[in-house]
Specification:
heterodimer, A: 116 residues, mainly beta, four-stranded antiparallel beta sheet, globular, B: 115 residues, seven-stranded mixed beta sheet, 11 strands
Chain lengths: 116, 115
Amino acid sequence: AQKITQTQPGMFVQEKEAVTLDCTYDTSDQSYGLFWYKQPSSGEMIFLIYQGSYDEQNATEGRYSLNFQKARKSANLVISASQLGDSAMYFCAMREVFTGFQKLVFGTGTRLLVSP
Amino acid sequence: DGGITQSPKYLFRKEGQNVTLSCEQNLNHDAMYWYRQDPGQGLRLIYYSQIVNDFQKGDIAEGYSVSREKKESFPLTVTSAQKNPTAFYLCASSIDRGGVGQPQHFGDGTRLSIL
């Protein structure tokens, strides 16, 4: 079964610095997708960035980029120029293909705190 | 604006009572999902539905029930059989076609507590 591991329960970063949030995954599928979501204290899950297993380039969306290392099965999120509003929980998730239904498997998350 | 609306934001359940959480989407998405989130944990799938009048159990369906009578609505009932219902419940939807790249879009969640 697919599995997502986020080993950092909490991370601290100063405003304007870059931070990397780790995510490793385990799958035997050749075709899969990796997603990162942000969950502020208010609770909603906000989609940030997506990386497909066949994508040759690392995904980027504004200040977010994904350091995708397929051989190492890692998909780390890099946030550049951190802002106070980036303080939140961050979840890595993988799209599992199961009898035609595409299920998301989530990691346990990393809490990021950005300090002034 | 298109999106997913969950209500209520907070809900309290008495012992032996069934409660229903509402989820409505106007994104014209085919697939809808219910997740449960416990403190310090990731999301776990309760039920999902790919089309109207069809739904499937997820990883933790015991003590829960759903219906999908309309494309835009996917209510979740937490029954009295669910002995530990206190959690944060998130509803999501997705296009669910065209490969693995379609993200799921989430509502703002309902926080359920036991009285």
